[in-house]
Design goal:
Layout lengths: L39 H7 L4 H11 L4 E4 L6 H8 L4 E4 L3 H15 L3 E5 L3 H16 L2 E8 L20 H4 L8 E4 L6 H13 L4 E8 H4 L21 H11 L4 E5 L7 H11 L2 E4 L14 E4 L6 H9 L4 E5 L5 H4 L11 E5 L14 E5 L2 H9 L2 H5 L26 H13 L5 E4 L3 H9 L8 E2 L9 H13 L3 E6 H6 L3 H7 L3 E7 L4 H9 L14 H8 L2 E5 L5 H10 L4 E6 L11 H7 L25
Helix pairs in contact: 2-3, 4-5, 4-17, 10-13, 15-22
């Protein structure tokens, strides 16, 4: 295997990322958040500024516009300062929901976000959402309270110290936090700001944790610290790497495999594909970066993907595949060797540790670069690629399902997806996100997007409740519609309907209500494993929504779908569409059971034929 990594120096002060630059003029503005307070600078004029005031000021200078969290006594000083800042501060019902909302607010706007928590369980409750934020590539800063130094080790209420929580990983930089520190003095803040600014200026995920002891939050400062901005250059490919890449791709037909990391380069990907005739496939998170209605789009790979991809690889095998911004992880590829072309991969990623990991035996020419910068350089050499391109006369297309309209009750999931496509995707600009489980499978397989950054799913952590809570972050941050397609299990686990009601957030929940953890139920059935009970009592989510102060519509018949969805998209506040679906319709997947079998999960002999790629397969929990 050949691996050739190229690097450029990451320089400070050459190419600014405007969102992270200080905005001194903003200090004279009034608060734009829904809490209606005046800004922190005005408050600070009446008294000496505190460390908490300075931290709120720091968040403004870093470009943060939204903060999500749950209040508590240990962080009262910090909560007060945030509430009197320019940030839009939203008090959620659970810290995990706040963290999911913060991650999706980042993806909706590209601006870093804040999660705030009190001590003890406030921090630990948020960890799953923060873990997901880092895995998804978000930029989120956790501001938490911890026990003041004199009280540590004395069993303070919700004591948060090395006596009660593991220091490594929670309060230090590592696998969970890119940067973490405890603020013991206001004198630390300028250097903390520089580290945060540098981290936020880098491409990819940046999840940080500032833990501020309760007493330190309200300690006075002689003056507000000066926070100086920092710029960082893009990582661009060496000329030699572009020349080598051009040579490899000119040796024969190639495909383009698009991942979520390429979402900022949609225009360049379209140009490259159309100039060369290359077939395009994408990861589940990469849906819409290349228009799914384009004749060169072959399909989605991995979980919830399309059999058309395998048809293409078998019948019109490319010599190489240009991989852009995807780890080729299990949900994206199932590590299926049939997806490896004879000449291997040209793999471009901002993270030099990514190429060559998913398929260690495949020939891989690796390039570390920002995807957009790489493609812009490659397009300058496209005349060398054109001679090797293939004008696809009959590229396979993602399979569709012909469903006859009817008045079925309960509702068939396929019919629900068709209605979502026509009313929400084709008729509005709303962000659409799908929860893990069968919601993910139905949505990824059947919905079609022609634009980047409209579809959000989690294929890393895949936590239940991510979309159910995250939808409020996306809707609030963009001040527009966001739609979550969720299962009843996830909706019962974690939703933020009450938060959306309080702040009049125009979020829409579409609940696939089948009284089951149906991915688990169907997966166990397909694998021939008996005895496990995945049923749950059927809840009335429309009634729950009404009880919380939101709108709610319960749908039992297919004929009522369109009117309900149209009503949801014109609603000015939060609304829940509770759809009672047919639990026996098998969700589409192309390989999860085979992946489980390779890890030692055995199916019964009668079920083994279901593992062949030519058959639609039912998935099983991605855990």
């Amino acid at each position: 295997m050949s691996q050739n990594y190229t690097q450029t120096n990451s320089l400070v002060g050459t190419q600014p990322y405007d969102v992270y630059q200080p905005t001194d003029s903003s200090k004279d503005q009034t608060n734009g958040s829904s809490n209606g307070h005046s800004n922190g600078a005005a408050v600070a004029q009446k008294r000496s500024p505190t460390v908490a005031d300075a931290i709120a000021n720091m968040m403004e200078d870093l470009g943060v516009s939204c903060a999500f969290g749950v209040n508590g006594g240990a962080m009262a000083g910090l909560w007060g300062s945030l509430s009197n800042s320019l940030l839009q501060v939203m008090n959620c019902r659970h810290e995990a929901g706040a963290a999911f909302a913060a991650a999706e607010a980042y993806f909706a706007t590209g601006r870093p976000t804040v999660v705030f928590t009190t001590a003890g369980p406030g921090i630990t409750n948020a960890l799953t959402g923060l873990f997901a934020a880092r895995g998804e590539g978000a930029k989120v800063i956790l501001l938490s309270a911890c026990t003041s130094s004199p009280q540590r080790g004395r069993w303070a209420i919700q004591e948060t110290s090395s006596h009660t929580l593991p220091t490594e990983g929670i309060f230090t930089s590592g696998t969970l936090f890119n940067y973490a520190t405890t603020v013991e003095s206001g004198a630390q803040l300028p250097q903390i700001f520089r580290k945060l600014a540098l981290g936020l200026s880098q491409p990819g995920a940046f999840v940080a944790h500032l833990s501020i002891p309760t007493a330190v939050q309200t300690s006075p400062l002689d003056r507000m610290p000066l926070f100086q901005g920092m710029d960082c250059s893009l990582v661009v490919p060496h000329t030699e790497a572009i020349v080598k890449c051009t040579q490899l791709l000119s040796e024969g037909p190639f495909a383009i495999w698009v991942g979520f990391g390429a979402r900022g380069a949609a225009e360049e990907i379209l140009q490259l594909a159309e100039r060369t005739g290359a077939a395009v496939i994408c990861s589940p998170r990469g849906k819409g970066i290349f228009p799914e209605d384009h004749p060169q789009f072959v399909g989605v790979t991995g979980l919830g993907g399309h059999g058309s991809v395998m048809t293409y690889m078998q019948q019109q095998t490319p010599l190489r595949t240009l991989v852009l911004g995807t780890r080729l992880s299990e949900p994206t590829s199932f590590w299926n060797e049939a997806l490896v072309p004879p000449g291997g991969f040209v793999h471009v990623d901002i993270d030099p540790t990514v190429p060559g990991v998913a398929y260690p035996e495949a020939e891989t020419f690796a390039i570390q670069s920002d995807i957009k910068a790489f493609l812009q350089a490659l397009l300058q050499h496209d005349e060398h690629l054109a001679s090797a391109s293939v004008t696809a006369l009959s590229l396979p297309r993602p399979e569709g399902q012909t469903i006859q309209p009817g008045s079925d009750s309960p509702v068939r999931p396929e019919v629900l997806m068709e209605a979502i496509q026509k009313v929400i995707i084709d008729g509005t600009d709303a962000i659409v996100m799908a929860e893990c489980g069968n919601s993910f499978l139905w949505s990824t397989h059947l919905l079609r997007f022609a634009n980047a950054n409209r579809y959000r799913i989690s294929t890393g952590v895949g936590a239940m409740g991510h979309a159910a809570a995250g939808v409020i972050g996306a809707a609030a941050a963009r001040n527009g519609k966001a739609v979550a397609i969720v299962g009843d299990g996830a909706m019962l686990m974690n939703n933020e309907i009450s938060t959306a009601v309080k702040y009049e957030i125009p979020a829409v929940w579409i609940v696939l209500n089948d009284a089951r953890y149906n991915m688990s139920h169907q997966g166990m059935e397909m694998l021939g494993l008996k005895g496990a009970d995945a049923s749950i009592p059927q809840a009335d989510f429309a009634a729950i929504a009404h009880a919380m102060g939101a709108e709610g519509i319960r749908i039992n018949k297919e004929m009522d779908l369109f009117s309900a969805l149209e009503q949801a998209m014109v609603a000015t506040g939060p609304i829940v569409i509770d759809v009672v679906i047919n639990p026996d319709r098998r969700a589409p997947s192309k390989g999860r059971n085979a992946g489980l079998a390779s890890q030692g999960v055995k199916s019964t002999p009668a079920q083994k034929t279901e593992l062949h790629v030519s058959f639609p397969q039912v998935s099983f929990p991605n855990a």
